Amino acid sequence: MKNLINKAKKTLLGNRKKGYTLPTNNKLYPAQWNWDSAFIALGYSYFNLNYALKEIQTLLDGQWKDGMVPHILFHDTNNNYYPNHTAWNCGNKIHSSGITQPPILSSILKEILDNNKINKNQFLTVKKIIKKIKKYHEWFIKFRDPKNSGLVSILHPWESGYDNSPIWDSPMKKIVIEKNLNYKRADNKVVNPEYRPLNVDYDKYVTIKNKLKKHNYNPKTVFKLSLFNVVDVGFNSIFLKANKDLANLLDQFKLDKTVISNYIKITEKNLLKLYDKKKETFFSKDLRHNRRIYVPSISNYFVLFADINNNIINKKLIKNLKKHNTKSEYFFSSIKSNHKSFEEKRYWRGPIWINCNWLIYKGLKNKDEVYANKVKKMTVQIIEKKGFYEYFSSRSCKPFGAKNFSWSASLYLDLKNNKC
Ligand code: DGY
User: Fold this and answer.
1) 383: CATH
2) What's the CA gap between 20 and 69, in Å, rounded?
């Protein structure tokens, strides 16, 4: 499908602004998003390495002094998005949101460097990038895990990237919506509201954001006072793998990796504490309400991506992953389709997301090659059938959300370039 490969490249270039790329070319996401940009950089690396590095550099230009890399950078403040730069009212050099997103960047950078030779100039650029990513990871360790448990917290559902996942239903339930909230959503005017989060969820997102803002996003204070504080298994799996990949990059560039290596050891041990042997499943933890969260989300399988050193658990995970979707369906639905919270069309409550399939595929590659190939084939098929949409029905493959979605195009390029 050479045609589609060219189309994927054109999609990325079509969404490209000055030094960064929008998640899509419509009005839904008119800014630079953290993990979108990382996936986008991987796509560029197949035809323009400088664009790939530039994408990452621009994202890191918005890094806060304390090390945090925001989930959104508002390079262009003239847009219709809510919450916009004034609603967040923060940023360092670039207007930004006051929260972060899954730190997939070092894993993406390692993929890019594994596949490309870099010249002297690019070497220097990459070295600077790696130092900034190290600072970002150290920020997580220091401020999102003050007790050094090896597991970091997210303080807003948006930090997970899977915004309205049913995983957050229980921690969000007790949040009292702020009185006299006055804001206008734009997203559900651009995309069918049936495919987007509910208003009641948005009211709570804004309430949580306002509380963080009230405390000036002070990382120590908000850890204690945020209305939402969850240790999510998917997020921590991504962070564990990101730390492993960062440690490897620090070695390659002869930089000190002590803090990162020590943290990897604690995470390796304590991630397993989120495993329920009886139920044969991982769970997340609501720290604010001291409760376990059991939701059959595809993100629980990101543990495979983390490459934990435990064959028994890996095998059980793969066995259950194969049952996540029944034969007739396209996979992977973001939530197991027989679960009460499953919704076919609504954003992160059921649809298939290409980046989730990609994370699972990468996690399976060195554990079950045959199944990894099957996942890759299915993912590629969905895109070849329907195009670079944001998400898809696991029942009919019907596309939802934005079209010309950058990470769908990017990850298609990566999957087509992967041998296994
Ligand atoms: C959105 O606007 O839907 C984003 O996912 C929030 O980061």
Assistant:
1) 1.50.10.10
2) 15
